[in-house]
Every structure is written in C-alpha cells, then in structure tokens.
Amino acid sequence: MAEQEITVCRLDELDDPGAREFEFDTGDGRDYGFVVRRDGEVHAYVNSCPHTGSALNWAPDRFLTKAGDQIMCGVHGAIFRIEDGHCLAGPCEGRDLNDLDCRVVEGEVRVRVA
Ligand code: FES
C-alpha cells in the first residue's frame, strides 16, 4: 500500500509522560500503533509485543509503567525503553518494538505508516 501519514492527536492532548493508541489501514486490514511522549519527545510504535504479538496496553491508552518512565506490556510485564522500544526485561528481553516515523508538525502528532 502507499505510504501515508496520519494525524494521531494534537501534541497538547498528549500528557508528558503519556501515550495514545491509534488505528491505521494496512491496505489489507487494520493495525494498531501508539505514540508515547516523554521529556518533550514523541515516539511511535506498532502496538504489538515481540513476545506473542499481543497488544501491549492493559487499558485504553495505558502503555506506561506507574512511574511513566518505561513502556510496560500488560500481558506478561515486559519492560521497554521509551526512546527506542528496546526490551530491557521480561520474556522478550533484548528484542525491540517496531518503530514508526513520528513527527510533530504545527502542533499535531503525525505518524508515517505503510
Ligand atoms: S505478550 Fe508482552 S510480555 Fe508477553
């Protein structure tokens, strides 16, 4: 499918730290991603844990640890760095989330999906 850029939300709608799930068209179905903001930076990943492929969030838009400093999979508790999606602990330690290009343009959080 052709590459597309979608607007997930306005930056000021995203807590710091905070995360927001979004849905996108893959050309032959739908998939899910999420954006995560921390210390003023925004990152985006496909919402699929490297352990089993499950969605990471344990409730709508809840992707982070209580301290808000790491991404945590709600299924078996794997911990990922926010900055690069690298798994630091848990059953998929050493693996990475699939990252997506993300940028902030005119106050909007935009993600390139393909
Ligand atoms: S599905 Fe994420 S840690 Fe098992």
From TrEMBL:
Alphabetical list of CDD domains matching this protein: Rieske
Rieske domain ranges (all copies): 6-111
Keyword Iron: yes
The organism's place on the tree of life at top rank: Bacteria
Keyword Phosphoprotein (UniProt): no
Keywords: 2Fe-2S, Iron, Iron-sulfur, Metal-binding
Protein name: Nitrite reductase/ring-hydroxylating ferredoxin subunit
